[in-house]
Amino acid sequence: MQSLGERLQEARQRLGVTTREAADVTKIRSDFLQAMEANQYESIPLTDVYKRGFTKIYAKYLRLDEEKAVADFNTHHSVRAVRRPLDAGADLDDTAEPTTAVAGLSLNRDTTIWLVIGVAAFGLVVWALFS
């Protein structure tokens, strides 16, 4: 049975288009299309939502059954497909300390940038008032 990537590549070749031409029409980067055709979805640095959408768009462009393509993606390439259940608590550590609410705090890049800009603006205002 052919893999999803093999089916995508075969359909593209059957249509006689290059990955560059397919990228121009679908607006999906050609390196992403190449990764999809090579079944290397993990090399696409995006979440599964984008990978699933790209699979659907590309399959539709190639005149394949897009629902089957998405189902194959979900079965073989999504994060859910590669997760394994814990082995009866083998990964649990009884000596672990309880976590605090602050330990769960994480700042993404945009939040950090705005925080730095805010602190700098505050500093300028204070400097202007007292100089």
Q: What is the CATH superfamily of the domain at 4-82?
A: lambda repressor-like DNA-binding domains
Tell me what the CATH architecture of the domain at 4-82 is.
Orthogonal Bundle
Note the gap between the termini.
75 Å
Low-pLDDT runs of 5+ residues are 87-102
The helix-and-strand class reads mainly alpha
The description of the largest β-sheet is: none
Number of strands: 0
Order of helices and strands: HHHHHHH
Structural Rg: 23 Å
Q: How would you explain this protein's 3D organization?
A:
The chain is mainly α. The protein has a domain at 4-82: 434 Repressor (Amino-terminal Domain) (Orthogonal Bundle), CATH 1.10.260.40. It contains seven helices and no strands. The protein has helices at 4-15, 19-26, 30-37, 48-61, 66-76, 79-82, 109-130. α2 (19-26) crosses α3 (30-37) and α4 runs antiparallel to α5 (66-76). The protein starts with a helix and ends with a helix. Mean pLDDT is 83; it is low at 87-102.
Offer a few descriptive terms.
131 residues, mainly alpha, 434 Repressor (Amino-terminal Domain), 0% strand, elongated
Record the SSE blueprint.
Layout: H1 4-15, H2 19-26, H3 30-37, H4 48-61, H5 66-76, H6 79-82, H7 109-130
Helix pairs in contact: 2-3, 4-5
Summary of the model, kept short:
The protein contains 7 helices and no strands. With 131 residues, it is an all-alpha fold.
